[in-house]
Write a structure and sequence with these properties.
27% helix; alpha+beta; single chain; 3 helices
Length: 81
């Protein structure tokens, strides 16, 4: 869901992730719980982009609900965390 121009919020249970569309590609803020892949890829598609355009991932802190999906998303996108 686009909450501001070029900023998408991805809701996953009790945590929100954010996808930011920039000139050089996409940035994901947090990856949610393990199994969040489909929601994240859906948001990338909603932003009219592709997984290959995800360039960076920022993890705000080391709770499992913020980094649990990191390995899955890096496999799909090769983004740097």
């Amino acid at each position: 869901m686009e909450i501001y121009p070029h900023v998408y919020m991805i809701r996953q249970m009790f945590v929100n992730l954010y996808l930011v569309v920039g000139e050089d590609g996409l940035m994901l803020i947090d990856t949610g719980l393990k199994g969040s892949r489909a929601r994240i890829l859906g948001a990338i598609q909603e932003a009219k982009s592709t997984p290959a355009n995800l360039k960076s991932i920022v993890i705000t802190h080391a709770d499992g609900d913020h980094f649990g999906g990191l390995a899955e998303i890096q496999q799909d996108t090769h983004a740097v965390a």
